[in-house]
Amino acid sequence: MAIARYFRLIGSLARYGLARELAFRGNFLVKLSVEVIWLGIMLSFYETVYGRTNSIAGWTKPELLFFVGCFFMLNGLIETLFLENCNEFSELVRTGDLDFLLLRPIDEQFLITCRRFDWATAPNILMGLAVMVIQLVKMGWQFDPTRILAFAITFSSGALIAYSLMVTLTATSVWMVRNQSLMEMWWLFSSLARYPKQIFLGTPAEPIGFLFTFILPILLVVSVPAESMVRTLDWRMVAFTTVAALLCVKASRAFFRHALRSYRSASS
């Protein structure tokens, strides 16, 4: 079956990526250390902030640290699977090496965005999960399969939204060749996703919150999964996030395929 074929391919690509990383163990350990330090700085920052207040936009300390863990887990997933590949796409266009990928008998978007695994960021997934579990224990969270289901749906939807935005930015390289400034927009989006959407309410920046919640739904990526687990479970937001993810995936794939049709190979 086609799906089984793709899973086998993912396994092969993952093994190849791990072998490549372990060939340069020093670099791998340095990259891993940077990720650990980054998480430590984020947690220290919020520890300092909550030393002076009990709530930020209605989020208590354990709730917001759960949010941070959720962000770190999702961001680690995106960086491990897709970020390096998307960053290299402009170079493939510039050199014409994209031709060789387009000749492969497999879906072009899958191969272009998933061909390499960045194993140095994979531990972020486990570290984020650990932070989330620790905060749930501190809150005395009671096991609730409904909340876990809502979290699984919205976390997956958030990952799809983030992936779709990244694919859309990546596809612009076909026309711009160098899209460094546009890829910097991805870091802007990821920075926005790092904060709960409630921080914009009642401030002059509230229209920005509305824009990035209902038009370009980057604020849904982490906020809705975290809220579903540790705050109010709003099935309307769960449904909206799911629909937004499906629309983003469809739109980004159509845009990516349009970009490939506009590509002029090195031989043309």
SSE topology sketch:
Elements: H1 2-22, H2 25-49, H3 61-95, H4 98-102, H5 108-114, H6 123-139, H7 145-171, H8 173-176, H9 180-193, H10 206-215, H11 220-230, H12 235-262
**Structure classification:** mainly alpha
- Termini gap: 35 Å
The helix fraction, in percent, is over 70%
Task: Output mean pLDDT.
Answer: 88
| H and E order | HHHHHHHHHHHH
Q: Total number of β-strand segments?
A: 0
Percent strand: under 5%
Enumerate the spans where pLDDT stays under 50 for 5 or more consecutive residues.
none
Instruction: Give the count of helical stretches.
Output: 12
The major pleated sheet works out as: none
Summarize the structure.
Helices cover 76% and strands 0% of the residues. It has helices at residues 2-22, 25-49, 61-95, 98-102, 108-114, 123-139, 145-171, 173-176, 180-193, 206-215, 220-230, 235-262.
